[in-house]
């Protein structure tokens, strides 16, 4: 029996329930103020190329932590076992999505390397605290996401379009949002575009490539952030024999406070 | 004989020439990296009300320094004599512009208070260093300025519309410009509006209320900053018996490095 309705504020308790298979839903609203992360796991040479891809593309792929080969823990982010601690995974073979299991212990190998990447939840919390509307949250929808005509910097076989998320808001809020998000380099940082969607290759803003349709009010200006779905687009391009990611919205919940995304985490360890 | 063609990089030398009446032109491009300031001088009760107006409206009126009543020096900004050290002044009586002298020693009174306010030159230098186009500078024109439907916070008789300056640029540059200018609270700080001019009451962006027509390129987004002309608009509303300001573009050149506008100047004195 799962118990996904009531908010679970302790990240340790939440991960324990996930590990036991009692929590398999989206993690938004759970884990209190804990930092949540996008997750990518790759083997051998694929992992080396992807690490270079992240370092070349820090806006869409802000690296929070990289695991040691074959080690499913990420001690700098908490008492984590990546074989069990994400509520739902995605398994990709040769760039094709082949399954969405709730545990990947049977797929773990001794050359697998994990990558935890910052996520927009951190800056959305900061926007909400500043009184800036986050319309998809207010509407209980997923954030709208779009493939753009902006290219990532290739590394090995990893390349592809930058995927962006949209948050529409009044212009004065957009200016404040830019100032706030500049302080969150580990949560995609400042936006990558503002205003005319066509300038970055988005033909119909009302039809996103991922997520739900946007709620755009009169007087709103569209603001676009680099998005953590970008690595999944790069996986479909690179076609590694095996890749494992989190399923959208089903994030890795860490023990790090969300506010830590405001600066580089180097040397920061949870209490 | 004036000698305004060659750039004078030393602020002390520039002020000496201004004091001697040998330099009466605009100060842009002169004084090296020295901070330039808007200047307002008022008497008695008018000065007290204007000080409250500045404190209530820090975006258009960022206070660098306030003089002691009757004292024409501003020691925190340099070896300055405000009766002579601005290349051209404006004299306002009952809110009407009545003259543009190059010296105001004969108008100085023992209850006159001076206000030095931050100026956009500081952040324009920072934008240029970041490779962001400042189109009116490139075209050798004045920045376009507009009265808006945004109201300042009144203080005593001082009130009126916020005046904004426009810099149009590509969206990615606009995002970076917002991040940069956020760091310059003493140079009007972050923009106050971006995108649709009609939202802040600007009907025709090609016909500014002050300055020259804008150079807007395809793909540019308009970005609007609070402007140091706002206090002059407030003077025409308040109609003080006597007010003295700098003439547009003919700024007070200080001994403070321009970079000091990046933080509050409290306690900072020139060497």
UniProtKB/TrEMBL annotation, chains A, B:
Can the keyword Lyase be found in this entry's annotation?
yes
- EC? 4.2.1.-
Q: Which keywords describe this protein according to UniProt?
A: Lyase
* Keyword Lyase recorded: yes
One function term, GO molecular function aspect: lyase activity
Q: What class of enzyme is it?
A: lyase
Q: Which InterPro entries match?
A: D-Glu_cyclase, Putative_hydro-lyase, UPF0317
Q: Which SUPFAM superfamilies match?
A: PSTPO5379-like
Supply the Pfam families for this chain: D-Glu_cyclase
Belongs to which family? Answer: Belongs to the D-glutamate cyclase family.
Name the NCBIfam families for this protein.
PRK05463.1 (NF003969)
Q: What HAMAP family does this protein's entry cite?
A: Hydro_lyase
Full protein name: Putative hydro-lyase R2601_07683
| Source lineage | Bacteria, Pseudomonadati, Pseudomonadota, Alphaproteobacteria, Rhodobacterales
